[in-house]
Write a structure and sequence with these properties.
Length: 246
């Protein structure tokens, strides 16, 4: 319990006391460097805030990262500047150290150097710190039990499962047949002679006569070409015996 109180209350108290004791020396050194007393009052605040911000940023960065090491170095540099300001101001007042251009330049360079390093540390911290996206959690909807209660199971009659009727097949309309060409009609007449002659191959005279009766071209060449087409479509017709020409 005592250790916890020392950590929670003692550490801030010691830090505040140390910064308060360092403030007069930092103020006198700023005045000796030629600053107006109203602006010199800000010098202790600059170094104190620099140390606090650097330490806070170092604690928020991942361990082992270069940025965390730089933040720790910044906190250490802030303490070393406060120490140097105390020592330098007391040495000058005691007469052991004279005010020189180097002291004026060093004191004047502290504020811009501190501002530049703090901006660098804050940029690194914002880049490395993972951003947490807010997640909206909706209230869970009340879930009803799918199982019927015993009273409802006894009262509600069992329902027969509905039978889904299959949709009637839609009959597609038949496509109109294309009219037969003259060549097709000639082949049909010649093909019919194989059956009418009792499964015999028709002779040229048979085909010429049948084509003439049908009102189609009835030359011998037309008849023979038609017979070739018919027998090419049905090769077994070539094996039939030849019909005897009347």
């Amino acid at each position: 319990m005592i250790v916890r109180l020392a950590i929670l209350g003692g550490r801030p108290a010691v830090l505040a006391a140390a910064l308060a004791l360092s403030a007069p020396g930092e103020y006198r050194l700023a005045v000796l460097a030629g600053w107006d007393w109203r602006f010199a009052l800000i010098m202790p605040a600059v170094l104190s805030l620099y140390a606090a911000v650097a330490a806070a940023i170092a604690g928020s960065l991942p361990k082992g990262s270069i940025e965390r090491k730089q933040a720790n170095a910044g906190a250490l540099i802030a303490l070393m500047l406060a120490l140097a300001a105390q020592v330098a101001s007391h040495l000058i007042e005691a007469g052991y150290l004279e005010k020189s251009p180097a002291v004026v330049v060093a004191v004047s360079a502290v504020p811009p150097a501190v501002a530049a390093h703090v901006l660098h540390l804050t940029a690194a911290a914002s880049r490395l710190t993972p951003k947490v996206q807010p997640v909206s959690v909706s209230e869970p909807a009340a879930q009803e039990s799918l199982e019927p209660k015993p009273e409802e199971a006894n009262e509600a009659p069992a329902q027969e499962p509905e039978v889904m009727e299959e949709p009637e097949a839609v009959m597609e309309p038949e496509k109109p047949q294309e009219p037969l060409t003259q060549r097709d009609r000639i082949d049909l007449v010649v093909r019919g002679l194989y059956d009418s002659l009792g499964d015999c191959r028709p002779a040229t005279r048979h085909m010429v006569a049948a084509l003439a009766d049908a009102g189609l071209p009835s030359s011998e060449g037309t008849a023979r070409e038609s017979r070739k087409r018919v027998e090419a479509a049905e090769p077994h017709l070539k094996d039939l015996p030849d019909a005897i020409a009347a």
